[in-house]
Amino acid sequence: MAEPGDLSAESPKSREELAAAIEAAVHRRASRRDQWATLYAVLKANPLTLIGFVIVAIICITGLLVWLVPLLSGLIGHPTTIVPYSIIIPSGNKYLPPSFAHPFGTDEAGRDVFSRVLAATPIDLSIGLSITLFSLAVGGILGLIAGFWDTPGTAGGLVSVVILRVTDIFLAFPSLVLALAIAEVLGRGFTVVLFAIAATWWPFYVRLVRGEVLAVKGAPFIVAAKAAGLSDRGILFRHIIRNITEPLIVYYTLDVGSVLITFSTITFLGIGFTPGTAEWGSMISSYQADLAFDAWPTLFTALAVFVTVLAFSLLGDGLRDILDPRSRRALAVTAASAGEIGKGSAAPTS
After folding, report:
1. pLDDT tens digit string along 49-100?
2. Does this model's pTM top 0.85?
């Protein structure tokens, strides 16, 4: 009687299936190793991408901790925060220069500027990410409809024309000017500012998604899928969306910085927050009066906006190279060639 672990007792078909499964697992593991090796080569060839990724990770983790630590610690009865000083109560003398106790100095009220910049991080970061995500969702859906069902003489073609004409109306105005006009008409306030920016940002994604859909829609594999009898829904989800995801991720990452600049500009003009609120644009607006004799608060707050926008830009540029197969292969070859050249130059001569 054969033992359960005796492979000789198994049928040839079972042994072939087992061998095929083992071979497939080995190939998957090797493929993952190749992907990680390629990613490392890309980052090595473009270190700015790695810098952008690290800075974005630090900013996101910091903003998350500033928001979560007081919330979670309050649930267990011991409220605490990672912000060093109160953002309302003065913690030192007025206009102190940067020091170990106050890395960014103090403002006109004696409040620690570093604490206020830190406390504003989750607000500005969440606004940049959420408005961009909302615009991607709304503009992406409308762009899919306008691109995939853009057939003249059909109901889909009529809907596509309506979407594009409405989009053109919004794109005819600069987004910042239109957002300011909407905010002034609806009344100043934080919610109004969010609505004003979101209402003017989705048209960019309509044009982007429609263009990507039209480019993929005429590809040979789409024609083959239609010839094979695949439904429009299957083509849309299996082929169209999967092939336009990469450029959308890149554009989304780059666009977070643009939304952040627009929001900071509007709040700098005094729309959205009351004076004294810990938000980067409002802080720069309140500190500009003291810029002539105490530039540290304005400089460090503006530096927070600059570093955040730069980090997302570097990350977006790097993602473009990483997600695009041709750029990824070119960077990998460049890194490999540089490594070979380095090894050759370091080799001793006979």
Report:
1. 889 989 999 999 999 999 999 988 888 878 888 999 989 888 888 889 999 9
2. no
Q: First and final CA of the chain: distance in angstroms? A: 68
What is the per-residue pLDDT for 21?
65
d(CA 324, CA 49): 14
- For the segment 166-183, what is each residue's pLDDT rounded down to a tens digit? 999 999 988 889 998 888
Protein fold of 55-83+115-325: MetI-like fold (1.10.3720)
Query: How far is it, in rounded angstroms, from Cα 24 to Cα 1?
Result: 31
* Domain layout of the chain by residue ranges: 55-83+115-325
- pLDDT value for 98: 93
Q: What is the CA radius of gyration of the chain?
A: 27
User: pLDDT at residue 41 above 90?
Assistant: no
